[in-house]
Write a structure and sequence with these properties.
By secondary structure, the protein is an alpha/beta fold. Helix content is 38%, strand content 21%. It has 15 helices and 14 strands. The strands form 2 sheets. The chain has an 8-stranded mixed beta sheet with strand order 5-4-3-2-1-6-8-7, with helices on both faces. Strands 11-10-9-12-14-13 form a 6-stranded mixed beta sheet, sandwiched between helices. Helix 10 packs across helix 11. The protein starts with a strand and ends with a helix. The mean pLDDT is 96.
Length: 401
């Protein structure tokens, strides 16, 4: 079975086509600047070089049509006809309390995703555009949705409830949901395979750190706590997001600076984090380069980032009464040698000991970076959310037959 995986944004769309016989990627690509006359389609077939095409792509329906044209093109295509695509899987950010697993798309599922627009106004509407665009172009092909929040629906009430009037939960579902669930699920499973133990017997802390970042305490294969909250703003310090702060900062800042709700929301999501503290960049690579040159604000941004990361690891070790495995993943987690080293060097109270030489190795494969004497296994596991979406879609379609 060939499955097309789609991640639709408001003005962009990423895709991968999988052959589930061996889970190989036949093609990947993205469409950028949707809605403009200079939209960009970048197509990367497995058998030839990447191609780039600039054209007018006014909406997601046209974007999907262009993608299908490239996938079936005589020269750069990877299938002869679109009938070879037997299912489509979508990433959807927010499933609220309604979805604890991936599901096939039907009218009820679409209605519920729409109902959840308020919880993810920047993401869920865009995902819905992707679903509708596929319906138009591939009307007879089953679609599945895989939710970022679903993996975290195993959290106990003591972890997901906020200590605010309960009426806000009853009326508006104000609670912790968590995100990056597909990634946390994937890397925790891969970590168990690498250490050669059943995931049911393991206490794992997964560190998904990129421009956005979150940690999850995975006990027995289930999420029992995670650092992001009702939105992706809570938790770690991130590229442009503040992460945790005193809630009173919000009304105080609004009053002192005469800010609107939208303005303070933009400040906390787009103008805070590494960018705000360093005054230079939201990119950890640029932060570490500047730090190496002695830039004090870059050093402070780095130190704050690592400090918060280490605090959450310590908290989740306490929540699970121990930890067997710590996993680093996503852009920063997979590629920043100095972040992993700085984080782990003060986790000796947990028995963490990393091997400096193993930590320097770059690989696309999962790898152990801790020493044989380390009481906690430390791994770098490249994430693969698209593969998890493809696997869930394949499973759901097979079960429906």
């Amino acid at each position: 079975m060939k499955i097309l995986v789609i991640n639709a944004g408001s003005s962009s769309l990423k895709y991968q086509l999988y052959d589930m016989k061996d889970e190989s990627v036949l093609a990947a690509g993205r469409v950028e600047r949707i809605g403009m006359d200079s939209s960009i389609l970048i197509h990367e077939p497995h058998h030839t070089d990447e191609i780039t095409e600039v054209s007018e792509i006014l909406d997601h329906t046209i974007a999907i049509r262009k993608v299908l044209d490239k996938l079936t093109d005589a020269k750069v295509g990877v299938v002869k006809t679109i009938s070879e695509i037997e299912a489509v899987g979508h990433r959807v950010v927010h499933g609220g309390e309604s979805f604890s697993n991936s599901v096939l798309v039907d009218s009820e599922v679409k209605a519920e995703i729409r109902r959840l627009f308020d919880l993810a106004p920047l993401h869920n509407p865009a995902h819905m555009m992707g679903i509708k665009a596929v319906e138009t172009n591939l009307p007879d092909v089953p679609q599945a949705v895989v939710f970022d929040t679903a993996f975290h629906q195993t959290m106990p009430q003591k972890a997901y409830m906020y200590a605010i009037p309960k009426v806000l939960y009853k009326k508006h579902k104000v609670r912790r949901y968590g995100f990056h669930g597909t990634s946390h699920n994937y890397v925790s499973q891969r970590a168990a395979e690498v250490v050669g133990r059943p995931i049911e017997d393991l206490k794992i802390i997964t560190c998904h750190i990129g421009n956005g970042g979150s940690l999850t305490a995975v006990e027995g294969g289930k999420s029992i706590d995670t650092s992001m909250g009702m939105t992706p703003l809570e938790g770690l310090m991130m590229g442009t997001r503040s992460g945790d702060l005193d809630p009173a900062v919000v009304p105080f800042t609004m009053m002192k600076e005469d800010l609107t709700v939208n303005e303070v929301n933009s400040m906390l999501n787009k103008h805070s984090g590494l960018l705000a503290i360093s005054g230079l960049s939201s990119d950890m690579r640029e932060i570490t380069d500047a730090m190496a040159e002695g830039e004090p604000n870059a050093t402070l941004a780095f130190d704050m980032y690592v400090y918060r990361l280490r605090k959450y690891i310590g908290a989740y070790a306490a929540a699970m009464d121990g930890v067997d495995v710590i996993v680093f993943t996503a852009g920063v987690g997979e590629n920043s040698i100095v972040i992993r080293e700085a984080t782990c060097e003060k986790l000796t109270f947990l028995g963490v000991e990393i091997d400096p030489e193993l930590n320097k190795i770059r690989s696309k494969e999962p790898r152990l970076i801790s020493t044989p004497n380390s009481k906690v296994k430390v791994l770098v596991v490249p994430t693969n959310e698209e593969l998890m979406i493809a696997r869930d879609t394949f499973r759901l379609v097979q079960e429906s037959k």
